[in-house]
Amino acid sequence: MTRIVIVDDRITNRNIFSRLASSIEDGVSVEAFGDPREALVWLQRNTPDLIITDFNMPEMDGAEFTRAFRAMPGCSDIPVIVLTVYEERSYRLKALEAGATDFLQSPVDHHEFVTRARNLLRLSRQQALIKTRAVTLERELDASERSRQQVLRDSRERLAQIVDTLPAMVSACDRDGRIVFVNAHQADFYGIDPEAVVGQDVSAVFGDEHGARGRSYDNVVFENGMALPPFEETLISQRKEPRVFLTTKAPLRDSTDKVVHVLTTSLDITDRKRAEEHLLHIAHHDSLTNLPNRTLLQDRIRREIARARRGDRPFALHLLDLDRFKSVNDVLGHHVGDEVLKVMAERLVGTVRETDLVARLGGDEFAVLQIGVQQLEDVKQLAERLIGTISAPLVVEGREIATTVSIGIALHPSDGSDIQGLLKAADLAMYRAKADGRNTYSLFAADMTTLMQEQTELDSALRHAINRKEFTLYYQPQIELATGRIVGVEALIRWRRPGHGFVSPGEFLPLAEENGLIVPISDWVLREACRQSKLWQQLGHNLRVSVNLSPVQFRKQNVGALVVKVLAETGVAPQTLELELTESILMQDPESVAENLRQLQALGVSLAIDDFGTGYSSLAYIKNFPVDRLKIDQGFVRNIEDDPSDAAIVRAIITLGHSLGMDIVAEGVETQEQLSRLIAEGCDEVQGYFYSRPVPPEGILELLNGGGYMQAG
Ligand code: C2E
Ligand code: CA
Ligand code: CA
Hints:
Blueprint: E1 2-7, H1 11-22, E2 28-33, H2 36-43, E3 50-54, H3 62-70, E4 80-84, H4 89-98, E5 102-105, H5 110-165, E6 168-174, E7 179-182, H6 184-190, H7 202-206, H8 208-224, E8 228-236, E9 242-253, E10 259-268, H9 270-284, H10 294-309, E11 315-322, H11 325-332, H12 334-351, E12 357-362, E13 365-370, H13 376-391, E14 394-396, E15 399-401, E16 405-412, H14 419-435, E17 441-443, H15 448-465, E18 471-480, E19 485-497, E20 501-503, H16 505-515, H17 518-538, E21 544-548, H18 551-556, H19 559-570, E22 577-581, H20 583-588, H21 590-603, E23 606-612, H22 619-622, E24 629-632, H23 634-638, H24 644-659, E25 663-666, H25 672-681, E26 685-686, H26 697-705
Parallel strand pairs: 1-2, 1-3, 3-4, 4-5, 16-17, 19-21, 21-22, 22-23, 23-24, 24-25, 25-26
Antiparallel strand pairs: 6-7, 6-10, 8-9, 9-10, 11-13, 11-16, 12-13, 14-15, 18-19, 18-26, 19-20
Bound molecules: ligand C2E and calcium ion (2 copies).
């Protein structure tokens, strides 16, 4: 329903206008007032669609009325038509200022009245409609804005959840070093409330050190606007547990591209680090002794060299090589050898200072890096202590094992300025210590470099020696004391090395055993000795020929098969051949060696144990082998007069050997006195310079032709 209010003080006008208004459209209700004040009272409770008011009224003019009406809430848009009698501009202005919508001139043209009123009504309805539309639109817009924000909030929340579930610490700080956020992982690590710390200073939350470091890195990112390359840092958790993190820092920008925050992401790499460290440890340590290996030693030397350049004290490199360790392995087995190495490693570590380094270089080679050397005396003292600790007796599996060591020492910087130089110098010094009879140390001396070169030359010369027919055999007679006759000869190899004269086996056989040339050399010796034996036989001399065997041969070839083959090739009677074995050969692999030896003995070949008394075996052990002869080592013979214990050993060997049905040969007999003692002890045969040095085959023939007798003094 359309409501129209008429305000006019004249009753006639009120009636006319009411009638006209009712005719504007269907369903119009008209409220007419003579007094504008009454109209205002009514308007306070009712909202009309159109007001038509006279201007000239005694109580209140049309302008005042309009102003009062417009001031009421919700009445600003309702159209108000003001009737003026005259075309009076000032009245119209007043009415417009008061909020009038339109004017009608009095006397009123009825048609105009209706048209104007109708148009205004339509207009105001249109406006109202637009307004509601606008409001709806606004509401709709508002709603959609809200949902957009909701989506944003949701995605932010999801993002936050993702950030929280990341197995990394994620946080952001602003330019002032205040925390913008920390994720759950980080909050958990530090035992903090992720929401409570927002806005707080990093140092206050994470501690001064982490805070200060974090800020200085953050500042770099703020300044450069670029992410920092990842770096590793160790952070301490609330449980006081240090963990290693890989941390990256990246700028966070606002819509204007300004860096406002720095995002810090720290990935826990503690386990990976541990695995790496483990691998590193394995790569740098020897698995048997857990000592640092060569790589780590070289690292340390490199560091010490760098430190020495800065003016620190010099250091010494001791290279240790256990003497004759190979025979421990060969004789007692690798498990015993390993045990010995472990014990020696512990002893070495226990002998040096904590700042020194003990490394195992492989096999039976160790190194000691002695730091902070003040005088040469320090170096010598340590070397002596090392020799002492190694040579202390050791019992493994019930066997007492005596080990000695040779040490070569190089000093930095006098003996070498770089790693290779130092290692080489120490190596040469060690070679000298070995040459000096082992169980000793040697300090590097400049002239040792030539020794090294000689060694290399010796190796290549030895390789050609067989083809160039540079080897020859000397023979040393063995005299039967009962008859004074030469009953046998021992074949001893000699090398006629061009430019060096005769080289004794002690100088090249150890090298040949190392580089494997011992096998072809031994083949040649056996063949040559048999060939010579056959010649003597053909000349009517019934002579036993002894040939030395090397432990290496038993490891690399079937000695039994070789002997059978050579005997067949040369046509030598097996009874004339004797093989000299060391105790270490017997103990390599007792069963297979024993089997081999029984076969040989069954053929008629005789067997002698060389250097008896120096090895590990006991007589009781020897009795399991088919041995014909024991050769008492020259060491015992040499001291037989002066050393009562050596004399006792000689006597024991002779007595026990005889009780096992073996003959006894004494080696290295040089004097009449020694000979007399041996005869008195009941020795069977002797061999030594007293009767003859080793000589070429012609020399043996001369001795034989000269009677082959020796007068027992
Ligand atoms: P070995 O088997 O104990 O040989 C005895 C060594 O003592 C020989 O040294 C000999 O010349 C030396 N000798 C003999 N009588 C005396 C003496 O009265 N006083 C002193 N001081 N020494 C004496 P050589 O010929 O230098 O041989 C040294 C070692 O080389 C031998 O010790 C043996 O183990 C080894 N050898 C020599 N020839 C061969 C060979 O053909 N094959 C193998 N596998 N080893 C050999
Ligand atoms: Ca021998
Ligand atoms: Ca010997």
